[in-house]
Structure formats: C-alpha cells, structure tokens
Write a structure and sequence with these properties.
This protein is mainly β and 211 residues long. The chain is 11% helix and 28% strand. Strands 5, 7, 8, 10, 11 and 12 form a 6-stranded mixed sheet that branches. It has a 3-stranded antiparallel sheet with strand order 2-1-3.
C-alpha cells in the first residue's frame, strides 16, 4: 500500500498544482492497495486538500522609500581659486612688547554662504571658525611661528587650506625700549615704559635773599 502511495505521489502533486476545483478520490482496490484518482467511482471517498498557493509570474514593483528615510545628497566640495594670508608678509618680523599680531586673509571668490575661516597658529586653531577675515592674536611667545588658514564648507569639510607661512615675533622689554628711546619728563605717564612712579623729582630753584 505504501508503494502504491509513493507511485501516485507525483499525481497528487500535479493535481494539487492544477485547478483549485479538482477533486481527489481514494479507495482500496481488489488487491488491497490504496488508489488515488481524480475519477469518482462507487465506494471512493473524497480526499480533503489544502488551499493551493499560486505564485504570480509578474514581478511586483518595490515599495517607494519614504522621503524621510532618503539620505540627503551631499554636493561635491566647492574649491576656491585663491586663498592666502595678506598680513603679515611671509617671513615677517613682528616687534611687539605684548606679543600682539593682527592677521588678515583673502579668498577668490569671496567666502561662500555657509563657509567659514579658521586661523591656525603652529598647527592649532586660534579660535572657533567664523566669517571674519581678520584675526587678532595676543601674547604670542617670542620666536619663529607658522600661520595657516582654512576654509570650511557648510558640511564641516575643508574646502581650502594655505601652506604654512612663517613669521618671527620679537618682544621688546620695557627696559630695552627705555634704552633705545630714553624717557623725557613729558613721557612719564604717557609711554608704558615711562611710568609716573619712575618720574624724577623736579629740582626747585631757590633765590637767596639779598643781604
């Protein structure tokens, strides 16, 4: 009986894959074998079949991606034709008692919307990026230093960067300034190297009474 079922298994699969309206019947023949057929006969019983799953041959279109899930397209980096430091000149010597320095930069074309400048002193940012092309530096140590400027785009990417530009800071002491330009009476309280505390007392002239 099992062999007969195995032989008839392809028939069952074919019939299951056929029309959903086809009926399958089973009965025991004269030799005691179970027979499956799609022809009804006396004494045959209908075999209950599961629902047939039909596969569509037409591919379904993918569901559209919601606009919120789509990643924004980042534009290529905008490059400037020119970026350079105007002040100070390359390899300039700066003389300042307090170690102060004004740096100005320029670009061609001008700074684009959303872009910012950042000044680097010896490879380190001097302040947060901004749109001003003028930078004021204070208390720079004496010696040689390197300046560079960068432009960031609206996505925080470096659009342009200058090469390192050297300068030399010479910090003159007050004593050296007094030595180079001695203080006069009118200079006390007016020049930093000539404080009022160091102003000499004026000699008072006395007239001896006529005897």
């Amino acid at each position: 009986m099992i062999r007969a079922f195995v032989r008839l298994l392809p028939l069952l699969l074919t019939l299951c894959a056929g029309s959903a309206l086809a009926e399958i019947y089973t009965y025991i023949d004269s030799q005691g074998n179970r027979v499956f057929t799609d022809q009804h006969r006396a004494g045959a019983k209908a075999v209950p079949l599961p629902p047939v799953n039909r596969l569509s041959l037409t591919p379904t279109a993918p569901l559209p991606t919601p606009a919120a899930a789509q990643k924004p397209k980042i534009q290529p980096i905008f490059h400037y034709q020119m970026l350079r430091i105007l002040v100070p000149d390359p390899d300039a010597t700066i003389r300042s008692t307090e170690g102060n320095l004004i740096v100005s930069v320029t670009s061609e074309p001008g700074l684009m919307p959303g872009h910012t400048y950042q000044l680097l002193l010896d490879g380190k940012p001097t302040a947060a990026p901004g749109t001003s092309p003028v930078f004021a530096l204070n208390n720079i140590d004496r010696g040689s230093h390197q300046l560079a400027v960068e432009i960031f785009d609206e996505h925080g990417r470096i659009a342009e960067r200058t090469a390192n530009q050297p300068f030399h800071m010479v910090r003159i002491s007050l004593a050296q300034k007094r030595q180079a330009n001695p203080c006069q009476l009118a200079d006390y309280g007016q020049r930093p190297e000539c404080p009022l505390a160091d102003k000499p007392e004026e000699e008072s002239s006395s007239i001896l009474p006529f005897l």
